[in-house]
Design a protein that fits this description.
Layout (H helix, E strand, L loop, with lengths): L3 H12 L8 H8 L5 H15 L8 H29 L1 H9 L9 H17 L7 H26 L18 H4 L1 H9 L8 H34 L15 H23 L7 H28 L2 H4 L18 H14 L2 H30 L8 H8 L3 H4 L9 H4 L18
């Protein structure tokens, strides 16, 4: 039987045992989050807006293709890293999905996939690397991917109450993938013949999900306006989320006009509805698109005017700033489209200026994101947080030494998200 002195020495040795070290690689894997996908989406926004330019030069397609490959590289990096996180730190992966704030970013993987499909239509299909049948298959993969991602996340998110006074338009990310079905649909129809019977299915499914996503996101926008009326303009990291409000009206207008343009060819080719159904749809869509275009521009101005005064200029909040890119693609593309429809040359100039601003914004944000990543301000967990998930007894053993970290701050090293509802202690 050990004597008391031996037991005391044993306890002392346990308490003085060195803490296991955590590699930098492990801290990044543990700290990765779903908010990495907006970087790829912002990259996709660049080549989508560049593709709409009226005046093109020889090397422009090569530049767009370069951004397309960067987007795919970012997508693969994010998917692989989050997969490693799921395998190595399943508790952390599940924690991110269930989190009421970080969980809204999970569907962004589907939106990032949508930008890749659009890039494939623009660059891989014309060069003969993929066929129209492959693009058609990608469309149904996207629809299935959106459903399998959105509805589980909707069930998880709506299973808990949420404070509407902390609401931001970024919460609509739960619906965005279904709304973008219409945008993916008209891009897929570009490579399909109007007489192809499969085209009608793509057209109708695009309209179906565009209606579902548009109306649901508009409900979110109503809540957003109510929140601003109650609390004033969004402040700090949430100021970035104000630009997400441009997405639903902009992308809806873009989808309606382009889908109706294809309906003008698809419906008459097989005698659907009436002979003039396609033209009627198109005329109505142009009117609706013009109305929605005005709403999207208003939300952009509504977000940009107070932006610089409300934003916290902290490098650890740089990921939220990527909302300046992809939500604005819809109404920027509509600017060019309205120029085509009504023959207004001035809109081509406006579209060019907006596209150059998009490219400049991308280079600025990408550079700052690299700096933040290099300094460990984003995507990097604390050693204590990694050890809590690796060693079951670590939390209890160092309970008095490890500071308590809120769930909203834990994964990314206290990095605020664009739609987080927490506030700093001094602000409470």
């Amino acid at each position: 039987m050990p004597n008391p002195s031996e037991m005391s020495n044993s306890d002392t040795g346990t308490e003085n045992a060195p803490r296991p070290s955590v590699s930098v690689f492990a801290r990044y894997i543990h700290g990765w989050s779903w908010q990495a996908f907006p970087i790829g989406m912002g990259t996709g926004a660049v080549y989508v807006t560049l593709a709409g330019l009226e005046d093109r030069f020889n090397d422009l397609t090569a530049i767009e293709t370069g951004f397309y490959f960067i987007n795919m590289a970012l997508f693969v990096t994010n998917v692989v890293t989050l997969l490693l996180q799921t395998i190595l730190y399943p508790c952390q992966a599940w924690r991110l999905v269930r989190d009421p704030v970080k969980g809204v970013f999970v569907p962004l993987i589907v939106l990032s996939f949508a930008t890749i499909i659009i890039g494939t239509v623009n660059y891989a299909y014309p060069s003969g690397h993929v066929s129209a049948g492959f693009i058609y298959a990608l469309f149904w993969v996207y629809v299935l991917f959106a459903l399998l991602t959105c509805f589980p996340m909707i069930m998880i998110w709506f299973n808990k109450p949420h404070d509407l006074m902390h609401f931001t338009p970024a919460y609509a990310f739960l619906i965005f993938p279904m709304m973008l079905v219409g945008v993916v649909s008209f891009n897929v129809l570009r490579v399909m013949d109007a007489s192809d019977p499969r085209g009608l299915g793509v057209l109708l499914v695009g309209y179906f999900f565009q209606g579902l996503g548009s109306f649901m996101t508009f409900f979110y926008l109503c809540i957003y306006v109510i929140r601003v009326m109650a609390t004033g303009f969004l402040e700090g990291h949430q100021a970035n989320g104000a630009f997400v409000a441009c997405g639903p009206p902009g992308f809806t207008a873009l989808a309606l006009i382009n889908l109706a343009d294809h309906a003008r060819k698809i419906l008459p080719s097989r005698g659907y509805v009436t002979e003039n159904a396609g033209e009627i749809w198109y005329a109505g869509s142009v009117l609706a698109g013009l109305l929605l275009y005005g709403l999207a521009v208003f939300f952009f101005i509504f977000g940009v005017l107070p932006y610089w005064f409300k934003l916290h200029k902290n490098l650890n909040e740089i990921l939220g700033c990527w909302a300046l890119t992809f939500p604005n693609v819809g109404w920027i593309s509509i600017t060019r489209l309205m120029g085509d429809i009504f023959g207004i040359e001035f809109l081509y100039i406006v579209h060019l200026c907006l596209t150059l601003a998009m490219v400049l914004t991308w280079f600025t944000l990408f550079s700052l994101t690299i700096v933040a990543f290099y300094r460990g301000l984003i995507f990097k967990s604390k050693e204590e947080d990694v050890l809590k998930d690796v060693l079951p007894g670590h939390n209890e053993r160092e309970e008095t030494d490890i500071p308590i970290v809120a769930d909203e701050e834990r994964v990314t090293g206290a990095m605020p998200m664009m739609s987080e509802s927490w506030t700093r202690p001094e602000q409470r």
